[in-house]
Design brief:
The chain folds into 2 domains: 164 residues, FAD/NAD(P)-binding domain (3-Layer(bba) Sandwich); 164 residues, D-Amino Acid Oxidase, subunit A, domain 2 (D-Amino Acid Oxidase, Chain A, domain 2, 2-Layer Sandwich). The protein is 30% helix and 26% strand. The protein is built from 11 helices and 22 strands. Strands 6, 7, 8, 14, 15, 16, 17, 19 and 20 form a 9-stranded mixed β-sheet that branches. Strands 1, 2, 10, 11, 12, 13, 21 and 22 form an 8-stranded mixed β-sheet that branches. A 3-stranded antiparallel β-sheet has the order 3-9-5. β16 and β17 form a beta hairpin. α1 runs parallel beside α11, α5 packs across α9 and α5 crosses α11. It starts with a strand and ends in an 18-residue tail after the last helix.
């Protein structure tokens, strides 16, 4: 039996970052997962560190809802059997999508987003993973003028926050990304301070290796076996029992497998997502992630090829994959960029835990002494992993937090 200061359950980008920041502060830490670090939800994303994000995703307008309902929308899909389960979350999400609440959320999240890139850079420098970082910004393309105008409020708020962005013509966009078809869109916005990663899995693995170099231990185990014994937290792992004074739950979409046994039930909304890697035709290339705002997909250059990501799918976490959205977005993606054939036999899919207010829970677990939570990062797990790790480590070691953690308190749900 081993003893450590802290157990961190979940070795995605969030949990690995928490464990690393605790180890940097001198704590003995065990990072526990059923799989290797970074092989779960953290593997599947567009590789974007969205430090320039202003508004979170919001509930669509009526026209979009109708298209989604009839399964004609490229940006969303659903399993009919899952709708009764997700309906309360969707209604709450709609309430949090009013202009006033979106602005409120933007203000709450801004300090964390502002640290997103610099926190990644700091860990990359010490973990030898800076080679995966691109500081080439990203593009948001609009196929219709009204879509571009509809997002004027976001750009105005970005201006107020001092977030750099440039509205580009088709010609200017094509000069920036010559392989994009100029007939596929009418306007774009370039966000120059956004960074991206060419291999998210490699980055998480590098952070985990840095954690190990500082004395941290990576173990294999099932988080559902967490329990208390003699006033301490205990995990049964493949290497035996590990006891700890403190435990961190950073299990992403698997948090609900563990927390209810401790009386903690959170109103998660699970969004599944897919990605698929493609080659290119001719000498086409892409220097940065590109969002097709009117079709709800992203194409982004990865070491494995051009990664095409889909929008959300509302389905049970463990339901069989239904990658029908590729059939809806591939024609548009190939109209925009000369994608070749898939370089792997089938798409990846995973799930993201999202709260309706688009804010994670970061801090102590109500009613559970020495249990800490880092859950619900939603679409921003990669972006906010290191910043979350720093914030929670500062709270756990009673250091002065770099930002006010109050908006992320779990008590807002109880």
């Amino acid at each position: 039996m081993a003893r450590v200061d802290a157990l961190v359950l979940g070795a995605g980008i969030v949990g690995t970052s928490v464990a690393l920041h605790l180890a940097k502060r001198g704590l003995s830490v065990a990072l526990v997962d059923r799989a290797q670090p970074g092989h779960g939800t953290s593997y599947g994303n567009a590789g974007i560190i969205e430090g320039s994000t202003v508004f979170p995703q919001s509930f669509p307008d009526l026209a979009r809802v109708v298209k989604v309902a009839f399964k004609q929308a490229p940006e969303a899909n659903y399993h009919l059997s899952f709708l009764p389960q997700v309906a309360p979350w969707l209604l709450a999400f709609r309430k949090w999508s009013t202009p006033e609440r979106l602005i409120e959320t933007a203000a709450v999240m801004r300090p964390m987003f502002a640290k997103a890139v610099s926190e990644h850079e700091a860990i990359m420098a010490e973990s030898g993973s800076a080679k995966y970082l691109r500081k080439t910004g990203w593009l948001k393309l609009y196929r219709e003028q009204r879509s571009f105008e509809k997002n004027e409020r976001e750009r105005g708020l970005a201006t107020n926050y001092g977030i750099a962005h440039r509205e580009l013509s088709v010609a200017d966009t094509h000069a920036l990304e010559p392989s994009l078809s100029p007939s596929a869109f009418v306007r774009s916005v370039f966000w120059p301070d956004v960074a991206s990663i060419s291999n998210p899995l490699a980055v998480t693995l590098a952070y985990a290796q840095r954690f190990s170099a500082l004395g941290g231990v990576v173990l294999t185990g099932d988080a559902r076996k967490l329990h208390r014994t003699d006033g301490r937290w205990r995990m049964d792992t493949d290497a035996g029992h590990v006891d700890a004074t403190q435990v961190v739950i950073a299990l992403g979409p698997w948090s609900d497998d563990v927390l209810p046994q401790f009386g903690l039930r959170f109103p998660f909304g699970l969004k599944r997502g897919y990605h698929w890697h493609f080659g290119t035709t001719g000498n086409a290339s892409l220097a940065r992630p590109v969002l097709d705002a009117d079709r709800g997909y992203v194409i982004t250059p990865m070491e494995q090829g051009i990664r095409l990501t889909t929008g959300a799918e509302f389905a049970a976490r463990d339901a069989a994959p239904t990658p029908v959205q590729f059939g809806r977005v591939l024609p548009s993606a190939r109209e925009l960029f000369p994608l070749g054939q898939p370089v792997e036999p089938q798409p990846w899919h995973g799930a993201r835990p999202c709260f309706a207010d688009s804010r994670p829970v970061i801090g102590p677990a109500p009613g559970q002494q020495n249990m800490w939570l880092a859950i619900g990062q939603g679409h921003w797990g990669l972006t906010l992993g290191p910043a979350t790790g720093r914030l929670l480590a500062e709270m756990m070691t009673e250091a002065t937090p770099f930002m006010d953690p109050a908006p992320f308190r779990a008590e807002r749900f109880f």
